[in-house]
Design brief:
CATH architecture of the largest domain: 3-Layer(aba) Sandwich
Strand content: 15-25%
Distance between the termini: 34 Å
Number of strands: 12
CATH topology of the largest domain: Rossmann fold
Number of helices: 8
Shape: elongated
Bound molecules: calcium ion
Length: 227
């Protein structure tokens, strides 16, 4: 696997490169934000390790621009470990956020994890549903938002899968009861409302593009986001 190390501190860049190469990765180092952007368009990298405090562009800006160009996995490696920094990085599309000083074994494991998730999402013969930044993999029983696995309860998962299968088609409460709980389930439609509420919260907390709308007097619908 090829890793692009973006780090302006020469000693740290060298150390990271040595340790990752020892762990079996090929590495290329960029020492500025602009060099990182140039390199990332040239080479085919499995992951970018991205420092935040760079001499020209900030790592966050590099992250934002890289995300506009493609879906290369990005791990931000920063001395800044505050929650707002992490949130900012992840919202700009980073796949993971690691605080310095880093342990190279942990970093190697995280690189493999983000690369694996990206492969999973892009695997051509895999059945999946996609809406905006949300991908649902029925066979893996996994939901990814921006490439990150988000935990869903089995009920929420079945409901989301049903909404994705019936995208843009309004679902009545009874249709949802049948599809999610089973035809013979003599439940009441409050269950549907409660579960829709949970599913909405879960999707919102993960900053997903998918929102479930209420259609007054009819039911609910998951609409594809505007292009
Ligand atoms: Ca730096």
């Amino acid at each position: 696997m090829r890793v692009l190390i973006v780090e302006d501190e020469a000693r740290l860049a060298r150390l990271l490169a040595l340790e990752l190469e020892h762990a079996g990765f090929d590495t290329v180092t960029a020492t500025t934000g602009r060099e990182a952007l140039d390199r990332s368009t040239q080479g085919d990298f499995d992951c970018m390790l991205l420092d935040v405090m760079l001499p020209d562009l900030s790592g966050f800006e590099v992250c934002r621009r890289t995300r506009q160009m493609g879906d290369m996995p990005i791990i931000i490696v920063s001395a800044r470990g505050q929650v707002p920094d992490k949130v900012a990085g992840l919202e700009l599309g980073a796949d993971d956020y690691v605080v310095k000083p880093v342990n190279s074994e942990e970093l190697a494991a995280r690189i493999r994890a983000v690369a694996r998730r990206r492969d999973l999402v892009n695997q051509p013969d895999l059945r999946r549903y996609r809406i905006g930044n949300v991908v649902l993999l029925p066979e893996q029983h996994q939901v990814l938002v921006d490439g990150q696995v988000v935990p869903f309860t089995p009920l929420e998962f079945r409901m989301l899968e049903h909404f994705l299968r019936e995208i843009n088609r309004v679902q009545s409460r009874n249709a949802l009861l049948d599809a999610v709980w089973g035809v013979d389930f003599a439940g009441d439609t409050n269950l549907v409302e409660v579960t829709v509420g949970r599913l909405r919260r879960r999707l919102a907390d993960a900053h997903s593009d998918a929102t479930i709308e209420t259609v007054r007097g009819v039911g609910y619908v998951l609409r594809s986001p505007p292009q």
